């Protein structure tokens, strides 16, 4: 029976021990949170990749159905090529066409520097007008 009492004592002693996640320092807690965040980001990336395959399959089905309804004779290879081209250019950047809207966008982005320059120019002009005006 001594072995039963010893094992019971070990079980109660080990249940009273603090767990590995108790009493973490701030650095250790931040490290655990970083690992959890990285795992979540990777999971979201994987889910997005799977959704992209589902999106591709759904798009293929819709295009085939639309082609049949409209009477177009389109092969699945042509539809796959069109979907591939669409997916390849889905997130690509193209420079906007030059024009007034592009100029206004640049002015909005640089508004703080433009206003600072205008304030300095107005201050210099006001100083000259006050001193020699």
Question: Secondary-structure blueprint of this entry?
Answer:
Layout: H1 2-15, H2 26-70, H3 76-88, H4 100-109, H5 111-132
Question: How far from one another are the termini?
Answer: 109 Å
Helix content: over 70%
Instruction: Return the string of H and E elements.
Output: HHHHH
Q: Tell me the domain tally.
A: 2
Tell me the total number of β-strands. 0
Approximate strand percentage: under 5%
- Count of discrete alpha- or pi-helical segments spanning 4 or more residues: 5
Poorly predicted runs are none
The residue-averaged pLDDT reads 84
Apparent shape: flat
Based on CA atoms alone, the radius of gyration comes out at: 33 Å
Major pleated sheet: none
Secondary-structure class: mainly alpha
In short:
The chain has 133 residues and is mainly alpha-helical.
């Amino acid at each position: 029976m001594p072995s039963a009492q010893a094992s019971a004592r070990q079980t109660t002693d080990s249940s009273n021990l603090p767990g590995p996640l108790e009493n973490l320092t701030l650095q250790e807690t931040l490290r655990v949170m970083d690992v959890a965040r990285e795992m979540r980001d990777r999971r979201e990336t994987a889910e997005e990749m799977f959704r992209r395959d589902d999106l591709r399959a759904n798009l293929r089905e819709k295009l085939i159905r639309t082609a049949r309804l409209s009477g177009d004779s389109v092969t699945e290879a042509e539809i796959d090529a069109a979907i591939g081209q669409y997916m390849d250019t889905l997130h690509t950047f193209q420079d906007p066409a030059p024009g007034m809207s592009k100029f206004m966008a640049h002015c909005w982005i640089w508004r703080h520097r433009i206003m600072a320059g205008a304030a300095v120019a107005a201050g210099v002009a006001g100083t000259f007008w006050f001193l020699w005006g």
